Amino acid sequence: MNLKKFLPFLPVLLLAGCSTNATFTRMTPSEQPRNANNLYPVEIAFNSGQQSLRWETVQPYVVVNGQPFPLRPVPIVQNRWEGLVPVPPTASNITYRFKFDYLYNTFGDNPQPDSAWSPTYSLKILDQ
Questions:
Q1: Average pLDDT, whole number, for the chain?
Q2: At 35, which CATH number?
Q3: Which of 21, 43, 44, 114 is the most buried (most CB within 10 A)?
Q4: Is 51 helix (H, G, I), strand (E, B) or coil?
Q5: Burial (CB count <10 Å: 0-12, 13-18, 19+), residue 59
Q6: Could you tell me the sign of the dihedral formed by the alpha carbons of 48, 53, 54, 57, in that order?
């Protein structure tokens, strides 16, 4: 193989190996009955094929109306987080997304920050 023909593709191959390949699995039902405290549980599983991701630096949030609310790890289960989202008593539907901030290793430099965003999800509040 001629090395000169291969060299122009080297940056593309290196970048392709660093892609996040993030997957999100919502563990929360899309409908929940209205409750007295107006806080509703959400849960997400996050996985990534990015080998350089530093899992110990992951900081997850659920974002509602632009406001982030921190998530906590689910005990015993790896790569799953849970938290509560506030829903005003007059609202019957909200949309939200999950955001995962983390550091990833780079060649010859300090770890760099990055984020992964989930798709937008909807939560319908059912009146009893």
A1: 88
A2: 2.60.40.10
A3: 44
A4: coil
A5: middle
A6: negative
